């Protein structure tokens, strides 16, 4: 439910309660003719109070209105409404000269029961919510009264009324107090929702800001990186071998930025995959095209399914290529030596498996659950492995966002197998009849 | 004496302009710089450049718009500078008439290779001398509509043939999914165009490539299109 809708519901509820109280009063009025005029005035002032409290622009104003009314109607000398804040602290609205002592407030808040401060200082907790105050106090004079305010089943605040020479709690006053407690509770709930809404807005603002900053950082980095690479190639022409290192480092920096952007999109929900039916071969072509440069002499052995000439799967091509690239790069970085990396495509019923198998050190059992965490790098990893430790987290995130997954298994004979699973497709999935205008995705 | 090559470089960032100018040195070209789309159009009309290098993120105009305006009166090859997360803009620019793209930060070698390929293609303008496109182990005869791989005929379906012809006659140039679809299917009704295109390309690779997962000719530009590479 949106904030506005909840506020509307509260206002509606408040008017329903007002009318219930009013009709109850009205019945008594007709029975007790003498009191009719007095009660009519009471009714009118309650209704007008309700109107004012509920239409106040801010919850704090509503609390103020309630607190002023309590003083007017009950002859109280001070009134405040304490509401819980998110940090479980308290904030108070109403009479600036209101009661100071926090102890009874905390008691009422924690127990969710009414608390009376009697003449001379002793506290009296009234456990029965329904018991009329005058009955519960049995003739004792209350100088201060603390009534819990509820939002649903939770106590969200306390109405705090003080009468220096004692509060008069006859049945008429008790009824007014009931109504005021209700208004105060609505206003306190509203205050809570306003805070939650403000927090949500702040969070959204922060998220937008983060995305904007990342996008701009990545754009601002591209220019100097392009320049650096161009200058490196000048150095190379002049015969300086260090140019190669400069270029590699620029590429590495560029990868970091790309990974950070991907991660940010994944965690903020900014990545919306559009899976389509596509040949797995195209995925393999795209991934190999990107990584074979960095593999140099090292081989990537590709095995396609023997009995399916055209394996198909549902995938968002651009992002799925990134998954396979990350897995291949991961294999290159963490499995040293010249042993070839295998890329195996197998169809497994309703799923397509694309596995990257290496002969590296494998993963220690204690680390299996953590390798897919962002920024995690195994203890055995070289410090200069050239990665921010986001590759596997991104791979799994991108896979899961489109109905697949990435899992690790131990490779028989030593090493790791990282398997990307995607929903398999058939040629029959290819032909949803659609109007023939080309609609690029 | 041959005339010097004229290159129009359009980028609002001075660092990129300087870097690209350095990279172009081996071509001994006269490089004219423009910092906005409007500048670019004016200078292109005045200088008649042999090549236009165009950044897509210009302050005043969409790069795509610049391409579209240029193409109304100029055939000069256009190489766009783009970024990894700008697939949409890249495709739009290519569809609007740009010839190729490189993503920033680009490798100098790849950049120069693209520039040279564009100039070579532009220099070959006019009629094709021979109906046969021969590259490596592959020979495509446009007249007799036959394909030979290592001298042996390859059987292609009509769609695969059309696709191969469109790609091979634009050798070296990246063709967007839309461009291929429009030329091969000519607007006929079809289901999911992009998915069908990928499937046909996969079949074609299996027929004409020695190693279909490492295609020498039918290369992919993920998210953008395909490119037929001649040896």
Comma- or semicolon-separated keywords:
heterodimer; A: 441 residues; alpha+beta; Beta-Lactamase; Heat Shock Protein 90; 7-stranded mixed β-sheet; 6-stranded antiparallel β-sheet; 49% helix; elongated; B: 231 residues; alpha/beta; Rossmann fold; Arc Repressor Mutant, subunit A; 5-stranded parallel β-sheet; 4-stranded antiparallel β-sheet; 8 helices
Blueprint of the fold:
The complex is a heterodimer of chains A (441) and B (231).
Chain A: H1 3-31, H2 36-55, H3 59-74, E1 78-84, E2 90-94, H4 103-111, E3 114-118, E4 123-126, H5 133-137, E5 142-151, E6 154-162, H6 171-237, H7 242-268, E7 276-279, H8 280-295, E8 300-303, E9 312-315, H9 317-334, E10 341-348, E11 351-357, H10 391-401, E12 405-410, E13 416-425
Parallel strand pairs in A: 8-10
Antiparallel strand pairs in A: 1-2, 1-6, 3-4, 3-5, 5-6, 7-9, 9-13, 10-11, 11-13, 12-13
Helix pairs in contact in A: 1-2, 1-6, 2-3, 2-6, 3-6, 6-7, 7-10, 8-9, 9-10
Chain B: E1 6-10, H1 14-23, E2 30-34, H2 37-47, E3 51-55, H3 63-71, E4 78-83, H4 87-95, E5 100-104, H5 108-123, E6 132-135, E7 138-141, E8 146-149, E9 152-154, H6 158-169, E10 174-176, H7 177-185, H8 193-208, E11 218-221, E12 225-228
Parallel strand pairs in B: 1-2, 1-3, 3-4, 4-5
Antiparallel strand pairs in B: 6-7, 7-8, 8-9, 10-12, 11-12
């Amino acid at each position: 439910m949106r904030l506005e809708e909840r506020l509307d519901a509260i206002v509606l509820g408040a008017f329903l309660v007002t009318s219930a109280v009013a009709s109850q009063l009205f019945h008594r009025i007709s029975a007790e003719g003498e009191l009719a005029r007095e009660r009519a005035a009471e009714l009118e002032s309650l209704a007008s109070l309700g109107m004012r409290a509920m239409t106040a622009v801010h919850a704090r104003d509503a609390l103020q209105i309630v607190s002023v009314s309590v003083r007017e109607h009950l002859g109280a000398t001070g009134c405040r409404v304490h509401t819980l804040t998110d940090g479980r602290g308290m904030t108070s609205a109403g009479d600036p000269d209101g009661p100071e002592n926090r102890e009874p407030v905390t008691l009422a808040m924690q127990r969710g029961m009414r608390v009376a401060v009697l003449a001379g200082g002793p506290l009296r907790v009234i456990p029965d919510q329904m018991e009329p105050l005058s009955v519960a106090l049995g003739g004792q004079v209350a100088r201060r009264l603390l009534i819990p305010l509820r939002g649903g089943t939770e106590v969200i605040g306390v109405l705090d009324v003080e009468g220096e020479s004692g509060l008069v709690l006859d049945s008429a006053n008790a009824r007014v107090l009931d109504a005021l407690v209700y208004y105060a509770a609505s206003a306190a709930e509203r205050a809570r929702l306003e805070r939650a809404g403000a927090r949500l807005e702040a969070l959204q603002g922060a998220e937008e800001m983060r995305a904007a900053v990342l996008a701009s950082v990545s754009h601002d980095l591209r220019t100097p990186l392009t320049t650096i690479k161009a200058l490196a190639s000048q150095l190379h022409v002049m015969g300086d071998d260090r140019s190669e290192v400069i270029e590699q480092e620029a590429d590495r920096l560029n990868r970091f930025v790309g990974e950070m952007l991907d991660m940010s999109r994944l965690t903020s929900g900014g990545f919306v995959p559009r899976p389509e039916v596509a040949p797995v071969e195209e995925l393999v072509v795209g991934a190999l095209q990107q990584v074979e440069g960095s593999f140099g002499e090292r081989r990537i052995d590709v095995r396609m399914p023997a009995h399916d000439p055209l394996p198909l799967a549902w995938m968002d091509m651009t992002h799925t290529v990134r998954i396979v690239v990350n897995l291949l790069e991961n294999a290159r970085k963490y499995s040293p030596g010249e042993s070839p990396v295998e890329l195996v495509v197998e169809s497994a019923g309703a799923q397509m498996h694309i596995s990257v198998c290496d002969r590296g050190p494998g993963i220690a059992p204690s680390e299996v659950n953590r390798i897919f965490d962002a920024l995690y790098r195994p203890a055995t990893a070289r410090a200069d492995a050239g990665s921010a430790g986001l590759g596997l987290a991104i791979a799994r995130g991108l896979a899961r966002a489109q109905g697949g997954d990435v899992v690790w298994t131990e490779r028989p004979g030593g090493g790791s197998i990282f398997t990307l699973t995607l929903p398999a497709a058939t040629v029959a999935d290819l032909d949803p009849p659609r109007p023939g205008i080309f609609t690029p995705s | 004496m041959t005339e010097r090559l004229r290159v129009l470089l359009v980028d609002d960032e001075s660092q990129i302009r300087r870097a690209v100018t350095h990279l172009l040195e081996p071509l001994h070209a006269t490089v004219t710089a423009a910092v906005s789309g409007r500048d670019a159009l004016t200078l292109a009309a005045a200088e008649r450049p042999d090549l236009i290098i165009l950044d897509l993120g210009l302050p005043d105009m969409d790069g795509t718009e610049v391409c579209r305006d240029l193409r109304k009166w100029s055939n000069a090859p256009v190489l766009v500078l783009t970024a990894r997360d700008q697939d949409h803009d890249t495709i739009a620019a290519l569809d609007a008439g740009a010839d190729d793209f490189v993503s920033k930060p680009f490798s100098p070698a790849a950049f120069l290779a693209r520039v040279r390929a564009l100039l070579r293609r532009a220099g070959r303008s006019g009629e094709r001398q021979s109906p046969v496109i021969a590259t490596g182990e592959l020979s495509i005869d446009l007249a007799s509509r036959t394909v030979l791989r290592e001298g042996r005929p390859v059987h292609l379906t009509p769609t695969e043939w059309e696709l191969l012809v469109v790609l091979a006659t634009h050798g070296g140039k990246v063709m967007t999914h839309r461009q291929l679809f429009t030329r091969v299917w000519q607007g006929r009704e079809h289901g999911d165009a992009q998915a069908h295109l990928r499937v046909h390309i996969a079949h074609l690779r299996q027929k004409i490539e020695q190693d279909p997962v490492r295609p020498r000719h039918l290369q992919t530009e993920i998210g953008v299109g395909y490119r037929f590479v001649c040896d």
